[in-house]
Every structure is written in structure tokens, then in C-alpha cells.
Amino acid sequence: MNDRIHEVITDLKSYLEYLKGMGIGVLPASEKKEEKMIQRKSPTLEEIRKELGDCKRCKLHRTRRTIVFGEGNEKARLLFIGEGPGYDEDVQGRPFVGKAGQLLTKIIQAIHLEREEVYIANIIKCRPPQNRNPEPDEIESCFPFLMKQIQAIQPRIICALGTFAAQTLLQTDAKITSLRGKTFDLTGIKVLPTYHPAFLLRNPDKKREVWEDMKQISEWLTKEEAKGSTRK
Ligand code: SF4
After folding, report:
1. What is the CA radius of gyration of the chain?
2. Is the distance from CB of 161 to CB of 197 less than 8 angstroms?
3. If you write DSSP's letter for every residue of 92-148 in order, what string do you get?
4. What confidence score (pLDDT) does residue 172 get?
5. What's the pLDDT at 227?
6. Ligand 1, closest atom to CA 138?
7. What DSSP letter does each residue of 157-192 carry, written as one string?
8. What is the four-CA torsion angle of 65, 70, 73, 77, rounded to 10 degrees?
9. What are φ and ψ of residue 156, in 5° steps?
10. Cβ(48) to ligand 1 under 6 A?
11. Residue 144's closest CA among 17, 3, 13?
12. 146 in ligand 1 pocket by Cβ < 6 Å?
């Protein structure tokens, strides 16, 4: 993985660890006093969107139509993170709305959830020309906003969709084939990578593996719920 991307993400992770050390982060529901502190100190999604504004922090602003901020339940237990907007997303300003998005919706429904119950975002918020991979300077500018969104949502689990999202979140060069189905830690939040729905459209025989990964996520969320640790 590119050294600069690695460096940026390491800095962000250190910052988040620092915030956690200061008591700003995931805390047990009983710690009401500290919870109030989080609400005061962590920006809301609306505030993060406002801060992003008509973003021109990287060169992708020149070719995009819209900024695809992300959408869904702001208190989602499950957060999906893809790579970046494609053509349909760029036109509509919403994540995962093309054919791959329709498949993602079916995947979500297969574990008895609705799109509105989860949150969906991408590593970068503007479509790269010809859907090329995001470049290091673009990630450097955009990724901090995603990390803020993760802090605001505090999901129980993140499902990283595809190679790029998994490698960026986990700072690794490992292939998606060796990452998928395994769980990792991102500042106290579980991360489970799986194949990107666009890849599934081209390789439908891989759907079974994604189903196994989704079952794992669903079972883990159910266990968490049973432990009474879900947030309303
Ligand atoms: S990709 Fe992110 S940083 Fe770059 S212009 Fe879009 S919103 Fe701003």
C-alpha cells in the first residue's frame, strides 16, 4: 500500500486513540455523564456535512457533479464503506444507487435490515474520472471526513466493501481474498471486509462467500443485541 496513505491513516488512528484516551469515543451506555461529553464534543453528521461544504480540498472537485457524503441511520450499528462514487452516484449525490447499489440493498435485506437502518459511505466522496482508484492526495484530503463520520455514528461493526476500502481502512496490502470474512479492529470498532457488490455482479459465484460474511455480521449483531449493548 502507498506509504503516504499509510502515514495519513496512521496519524488519524493515533488521533482517534488519543480522543479515546481522553474519554471521547465508544463508551458503555451506563456512563451517562461521559456520554453527554461525547455529544458535546463529537460533531454530528450535519455539522460534518456543513464543514465539508462545497468541498474543493482535492482535484476531484473539478470533475465531480455532486459530493456523495453518505446516507442512512445516523445511529446505525452497521456501517458499509465502499471505495468511491461511480456515475450513478455522482449524478444522484447518493452512495450505492447503481446496479451494484441495488445488489447491496438486497444484501442488506438478506440479513433482515433495510437500507435506512444502516449507514452507507465511501472512502472518498467525489467520483474519480473514469472510475479510477483514488490517489493518495485525494484520500489525504477526504478520509478525515469519513473518520469523523465514523466517530459521529459509532457503529458496532463496519463492513468494508472491496479491496480498496478494506486496504485503506486496515492499512494493508493484503488481497481481499485473504481479508474477507475475517474481523479486524479500527479504534475499537470491528471491521469485516467482504467483496464489493460490483465484483459480485461480474463474479456471481462469489455470492456464497458474501452471504457467509453477512451471516457472520448478522449473528454478531444479534449477540450484541442480546447482551443489551445496542444503542437506540
Ligand atoms: S473527494 Fe473529498 S476532499 Fe476531494 S473534493 Fe471531494 S469531498 Fe473534497
Report:
1. 17
2. yes
3. HTSSS-SHHHHHHHHHHHHTT--GGGSEEEESSSSPPGGGPPPPHHHHHHHHHHHHH
4. 94
5. 84
6. 4
7. EEEEEHHHHHHHHHT----HHHHTT--EEETTEEEE
8. 160
9. -80, -30
10. no
11. 13
12. no
Q: Where does residue 137 rank: exposed (0-12), middle (13-18), buried (19+ CB within 10 A)?
A: middle
Positive or negative torsion for Cα 221, 68, 59, 154: negative
* Distance in angstroms (rounded) separating the CA atoms of residues 213 and 193: 8
pTM of the model: 0.85
pLDDT reported for residue 13: 64
H or E element at residue 39 = helix 32-41
Which residue out of 140, 141, 149 has the highest number of ligand 1 atoms within 8 Å of its CB and is therefore the one to mutate? 141
Sign of the C-alpha dihedral computed for residues 44, 49, 53 and 58 taken in this order: positive
Closest CA to 144 of 167, 168, 120: 168
Q: How far is 85 from 142, CA to CA, in rounded Å?
A: 13
Query: Along the chain (232 residues), what's the average pLDDT of each consecutive run of 10 residues?
Result: 64 60 44 46 93 98 98 98 97 97 97 97 97 93 96 97 95 95 94 97 97 97 80 48
- For residue 158 the three cell numbers come to 463496519
Instruction: For ligand 1, say whether the CB of 65 is within 6 Å of any of its atoms.
Output: no
**Cell numbers linked to 118:** 444502516
Structure-block grid coordinates of residue 190? 470491528
Contact 185, 13 (CB under 8 A): no
Mutate to test the pocket of ligand 1, among 56, 65, 132, 139 (most ligand atoms within 8 A of CB): 56
